[in-house]
Amino acid sequence: MTAPVVPGRIAALRTAMRERGIAACIVPTADPHLSEYLPAHWQAREWLSGFTGSAGTLVVTGDFAGLWTDSRYFSQAERQLAAAASNS
């Protein structure tokens, strides 16, 4: 049985952070141009968390990962993060 995708990605990020002495990683929903529609290359928050909403910030530390978003996405974020943590 394979590990769920999102927890595996968070674990890999934590490993890279530990190797480089990084305490926290902040992953916003943005590109350098603050584009409304992000090219796939800049969708790191969605890739790491599984949350597909258009607004949110992911913060990952050695023992914590949290997603902040606005009230439009509270229900969606709760469903998607729970599913991402348990599914591959």
Provide structural commentary:
With 88 residues, the chain is an alpha+beta fold. The protein has a single domain (5-86), classed as Creatine Amidinohydrolase, Chain A, domain 1 (3-Layer(aba) Sandwich), CATH 3.40.350. It is 40% helix and 16% strand. It contains three helices and three strands, in the order H-E-H-E-E-H. The protein has helices at 5-20, 44-49, 74-86, and strands spanning 24-28, 57-61, 65-68. The protein has a three-stranded antiparallel sheet. A hairpin with a 3-residue loop joins strand 2 (57-61) and strand 3 (65-68). The chain is globular. It starts with a helix and ends with a helix. 16% of the residues are buried.
List the helices and strands and how they pair.
Blueprint: H1 5-20, E1 24-28, H2 44-49, E2 57-61, E3 65-68, H3 74-86
Antiparallel strand pairs: 1-2, 2-3
Label this structure with key terms.
88 residues; globular; alpha+beta; Creatine Amidinohydrolase, Chain A, domain 1; 40% helix; 3 helices; single chain; three-stranded antiparallel β-sheet
